[in-house]
Amino acid sequence: MSATATARALSPSANKERAWTSIRFLSDPSEIEAEWKAFEQHAVATLHQSYRWISAWVRSAAPASGEQPLIAVARDTSGEIAFILPFARVRRFGMSFLSWLSQDQSAYNIGLYRRDVIDRLDADHLHAIFAEIRKAHPEICGALLTSQPLEWEGHRNPIATLPFFERERCYSVPLRTSADALYAQRLSSDKRQDLRRQWRRLSETSAVAVDVTRTPEERQAAVHTFFQQKTTRVAAEGRQNLIDDPRIVTFYLELARSGGLELAALQAEGRPVATINGIAFKDRFYHLNGSIAETPLRRWSLGQLLIHDLIGRACARGLHHWDFGPGDGQHKEYWHPEALTTIDTFLAFKGRAYAVHAWMSTAKKLREELRARPGIWKALKKGRAALRRNSGPRTPNAL
What we know:
single chain, alpha+beta, 8-stranded mixed sheet, 7-stranded mixed sheet, globular
């Protein structure tokens, strides 16, 4: 697919009048905490732009990740917020670039936009915004913006009016008010019967229950359980542990402390044998991660049983979506989820960044061509996995 052609097709013949009259750049989201929290409730936004997510990241992990917050807050003539773009300055390829805050830990980077503003923004407006950023911070050479939804809540992502490359898809299950109706709609009869059988067999081994954490202390203890189980499992499989990173552990603990992170565990044999963590934001539950203990009980599909229970609870809470996030997986395929397209955007503003832009664009095009050849792509993925098993842990880029 031609990124340029796609971007042109999505560009609206928009009114060129700006929807904002001023842009202010913040390094600390707490400066507008009350406004941000009120704005996000009605804005087009995802969990990853919520005040809770961004503030926790800035407090706990941004410095160690080499991210300097550069949060653009635009206002209209009445002083009302038009949009918030939680950017960061990062060091890549020996140069300063613009990225999203917590970009590598977020499935959906899009910013927060007022609903009467988002559809008015086009490529010219985006270039004007970047010009304002460059004026305030001339050292920034370009932008590396990844993991962005092509659309959200029925609105086209303004960034998609610029050239982009498609990346892996994310998956979401539309929920219903009745869990039983959802199970019948989304799961095959064989799968429903299989889950009932597995739960019965598991219950024959010991008392079984699903526990949801209630207090900050319970949540933080559950975070440690999750990381311990995940680390043990990855080591047993001989894979590189990409999640046991002090920055990520600290971030999860901060989310647990602040009350945002929800953690649930499937209890059997008197201990948690599977965990799932995530956050509810607006009408969507964002399934962030999960773990399974090293136990013979694994044969009863512990993770699938826990997901089945929690999706039912999400229906009862009146949530509208269970968001599995990026990547494929059998535990997702069972639910026949909807696919959400995400995109990457690379921009060069000056100097050597043009060479980086050309190199990354070429690499992205080559990746797309290889993905179109399943046999070659599968072999490359196996080779990459082997290299990861034999390499050391990743280290963050320092600014």
